[in-house]
Design goal:
The chain is of the alpha+beta class. It is built from seven helices and 14 strands.
Length: 281
């Protein structure tokens, strides 16, 4: 039975790039022609953050395997962040969350790279149980792929209570909008059936207790080929019936950056006092 490939694609595909940037930052002798051929690199850093009632970072643990040089830069940067206090019944409390950080490295003078923050998400969820969706047989015969973005409602134990499509994009243009919608429905049904069996590890704790309800977004990519260079044809966007935090779809850029297999919270309790995107490490 053919199944869609569901994996943490972002980290696996970046391994060659990570090796490249680590070598550069450690002073390896890399030819200038190679550097010119790679104008920038991307790194993914995942971790956990605990903040005090006043919003300063009490503790930070890096979960990604980065070079010591990059890890030290990330650690120093994150420990200097300040968050809006998290309140329970009007009282500021200790809280903990997961973090997903994307870094962008650009060539700097000499054989080195300068790193900056490309994006940051709090409350990122990790599967404890994941069932890959079945690839619709009609789509296999037609050689058609798709990217389905799902809204998820998750309880404190990590169980998916509801899953509903936000947007489905095809990798080929259909003969008509009616035909395109029929294809999108097939991919959506397969995605929802799979997601209803997913389980997640808790990702945010407030005053020692796991957040009761999590709203999240998870993309699933169906494809028989490498879709890194494929431009998907976007379908209509549908707001989640339960998630008022994204009722007007204000976070398009963040959603577009999610990789196949990633799940991002849309109702994280954590808010930085200052915008860090674009800031150098």
């Amino acid at each position: 039975m053919i199944r869609a490939l569901v994996m943490r694609r972002g980290y696996n595909l970046l391994l060659p790039r990570i090796a490249c940037v680590v070598a550069l930052m450690l002073g390896a002798n890399v030819a200038s022609a190679q550097k010119a051929a790679t104008p920038f690199v991307e790194l993914a850093a995942k971790g956990e953050i605990q903040i005090a009632p006043d919003g300063h970072v009490i503790d930070y643990q890096l979960k990604s395997d980065l070079s010591p040089t990059v890890a030290a830069l990330v650690d120093r940067t994150v420990r200097g962040w300040h968050f809006e206090p998290i309140l329970v019944d009007g009282k500021a409390v200790i809280a903990k969350t997961t973090m997903s950080l994307r870094l962008r490295g650009e060539p700097a003078p000499g054989d080195s790279y300068s790193l900056s923050i490309a994006s940051v998400n709090f409350g990122s969820l990790t599967h404890s149980t994941v069932k890959p969706p079945e690839y619709p047989a009609d789509a296999v015969r037609a050689g058609l792929g798709a990217r389905v973005e799902l809204y998820l409602l998750i309880d404190a134990d990590g169980k998916v209570l509801e899953a509903t499509p936000r947007q489905t994009s095809l990798d080929m243009r259909a003969s008509s909008e009616r035909a395109a919608e029929a294809w999108r429905k097939q991919f959506e049904r397969a995605s929802v059936r799979a997601a209803e069996h997913w389980r997640y590890d808790p990702s945010e704790f407030v005053d020692g207790k796991a957040v009761k309800k999590r709203y999240a977004l998870a993309p699933i990519v169906f494809g028989m080929n490498n879709h890194e260079s494929i431009v998907f044809i976007p379908g209509p966007v549908h707001p989640a019936p339960w998630d008022k935090t994204d009722a007007e779809n204000k976070d398009e850029a963040r959603f577009a950056q999610l990789s196949n297999g990633e799940t991002a919270a849309t109702n994280s309790n954590f808010r930085l006092k200052d915008d860090v995107v674009g800031k150098a490490l």
